[in-house]
Queue: 2 jobs
Job 1
Amino acid sequence: MLMANSSINLVLHQGSMLPPELPVAALLGPSCFHSLSSTWAISNGAINVSPQRLNCSATWCYCFSFRKCRRKWKLLERSCSTSEFVVASDKNYGNKQVVNLTPRLYDYVLKNVREPEILRQLRQETASMRGSQMQVSPDQAQLLAMLVQILGAERCIEVGVYTGYSSLAIALVLPESGHLVACERDAKSLDVAKKYYQLAGVSHKVDVKLGLAMDSLESLILNGEAGSYDFAFIDAEKRMNEKYFELLLQLVRVGGLIVIDNVLWHGKVADPLVHDPKTISIRNFNQKLMEDERVNISMVPIGDGMTICRKG
Ligand SMILES: C[S@@+](CC[C@H](N)C(=O)[O-])C[C@H]1O[C@@H](n2cnc3c(N)ncnc32)[C@H](O)[C@@H]1O
């Protein structure tokens, strides 16, 4: 917020939202607005800022002046003390302030990730490859590794390896006796993964299964390994998630975890106007998990969204 002369300037970064329960016009009243630019659009209680750079440096700055509105302004200011948050829209949630991960804030999160050097190198090598956006983010990998550590997991499965970023993060924290079954159908990306398992000195922990993940999981079950795994991570063909989940639920022991990536699908799951097959499939699977009493669940808005399921 900037204070200048007798005017009060409301500064919002691009994409900032105001809590829907505090529509500015309603809160401040029309008399507060001496000049409300047409570049503002208030919809669903949020101010949608259209990009127009005014006189402020480094921020998208939109100013409107008003007087005699200090008390109301204070209310607004309290709920908008930093522009980098959104507030849950429903009063039933106690007007909880929920962080909105802007690029600047996400940079900050990444600066607070302890990414092992070998993972950084793998990420860098993968960056120039086709599909590099598929790998989990460093903060996601760190969470996966921490879950494995908290569980004291020894036996893990990953469905969808690509060049190995998440599997390497898991293998790095497994004990020497640990075992990770890594399922991937693409030999070329697996070559990169195997190179990094080698470089990191964890090859002996990783059992690479080249082929369709369904076949690999079914053969583990046929091999009598049901109930013997502690942790599984699903990050492959999204429309197959439910099938992977059912097989992994057999393979994981009671108390073990199954983590599913991309459950928010770039936000499309929450958009009723999106009806493409992948979105529908992820949305339906999320709903099924919500109702599935065989597992406890926690949907975590990290990366593209991960749901952590604990087998009960
Ligand atoms: C999102 S990427 C995995 C990213 C990886 N977890 C990481 O963090 O780098 C998905 C991978 O799943 C693989 N995949 C897709 N369908 C598969 C299937 N049916 N069986 C095995 N692998 C599959 C793709 O080849 C791709 O490499």
Job 2
Amino acid sequence: MAEAIIATDLVKVYGRGAAQVRALDGVTVAFGRARLTAITGASGSGKSTLMQCLAGLDTPTSGRVVLGDTDMTALSDRRLTRLRLDRVGFVFQSFNLLPQLTARENILLPAGLAGRSVDKARLRDLADLLGIADRLRHLPSELSGGQQQRVAIARAMLGRPEVIFADEPTGNLDSASSEQVLELLRTAVREFGQTTVMVTHDPHAASYADRIINMTDGQVAA
Ligand SMILES: Nc1ncnc2c1ncn2[C@@H]1O[C@H](COP(=O)(O)OP(=O)(O)OP(=O)(O)O)[C@@H](O)[C@H]1O
């Protein structure tokens, strides 16, 4: 199957009564395997809500999300947590590294939580590819923002998850570090066939994608 994720008729409503917001207003969209897809749109258009629903971090009010052959919207919270650990990788704007752990320990954390054995050779190769091989023993506070984000990308890639979700991955980076991070996400797609979905409001970041999905008022614009 050429699609890694298929979302059908996704609706997400926050709040009630007069304060009600339809953050997603009937979104149907598919994400191709081994492709880098960017989700763009104005502030408040529903980008983050869509990503949260696709990644199983939030539950849509109605509609369906299918990852591979699994209907995520039919899963219990416990199974959804397990699915995220086993099959999804995350990269966030704020890096989300644990400050008391070294770069290496941060990279290994999801594998530890999932009870997966670690491919040490892959860890070395990834660290080389991402240019952090000599930083692995350092704490996040001893790394630049760009290095921290590359550690977060290594963490997301190590277990070869079916999909990597990146939420504004360059939002806290200077332009040189942003270029590096975007090149590395492209490399992940090209070299490892890693399906990647990136939320960004930056047109330049979106230009690295194979495909751009534009959100307007909770809908995918034509
Ligand atoms: N937890 C929440 N409770 C209530 N309303 C919310 C919540 N999360 C998002 N919203 C609303 O849903 C709409 C879509 O928000 P969302 O964060 O998905 O937009 P976005 O496109 O990612 O915006 P930005 O680029 O500013 O991050 C907005 O109107 C927002 O205020």
